[in-house]
Amino acid sequence: MENKHSDIKIDYSKIKVFEDYNAEKPTFPLVLSIPHSGTYFPPEFVQQTTCNVETMRHNEDLLVDELLQKAVDFGIPSIKMLVSRVFVDMNRDRLELDPTMFYNYPKEQDVMFDKHCRVGLGVVHRINYLRQPLYKGLLDYDEVQLRLKKVYDVYHNRLQKIIAKCVKKFGFCLVLDCHSMPSKICSIIDDRSGIDICLGNLFSQSCPPEMSDFFAGQFWSKNYNVEFNCPYSGAFITFNYCQPKQKIYTLQLEINRALYADEEKLMKNADFATVADDVGSAVISLAQSLVR
Fold this sequence. Notes:
The chain is α/β, with parallel strands linked by helices. It is built from 10 helices and 11 strands.
């Protein structure tokens, strides 16, 4: 890979970055962000990767958008990323780029070479879920900057506008950043029965405790094993959109994939409808609690 360049030319006019719902006239001060469930892979990108689309899909938050459909149908403002997180990851900082991925990385460029980059999962992924190199060659830094402008910035600009509408109408907003987590991680951390739901609130810093406690209670009442900040306390969206002085709060939701899907086959399991109903009901109850 070191001696080969992977020059990707994307036709961004053919890409729909996101879909949003109930956003223009919000009826609840709750915004659902669904950044990792996108399943669109630009064909020009796929041609320069080392694996097939099915393999790359294992990096996504499987079916989380469908788990939340009941809440969306209820009228809760939401935004869903349509492009795969392997192409651009919305839940990373714009600077989380691994310099070793590029043949022309600017020496003077600032970089946030943190743990996500080191394991290959920065704002542009370097590896697939099997920890194999994702690209056939080194990338063009300028192409990735265009990728960020045409996809990453588009999603975040829209999310910011939706939040602003909620704050203007209600005086505050809670952003629920919605994800799924591999069952293997949950079982390793909790060897009793595994973690079903993880709520990341930056160790009680991202939202008032009554919000996160109420939400956890909705799952506890249906016998889900809920943990706070384990295995995830919150990533880029939870941290960077949290602005308590402006009455903008955040909470990260992680759902154990084994509850509702066959992780290897990327398919719903027999319990999908039940879990989707429980998740949707919990989110709706949270939204209603914010306007009482």
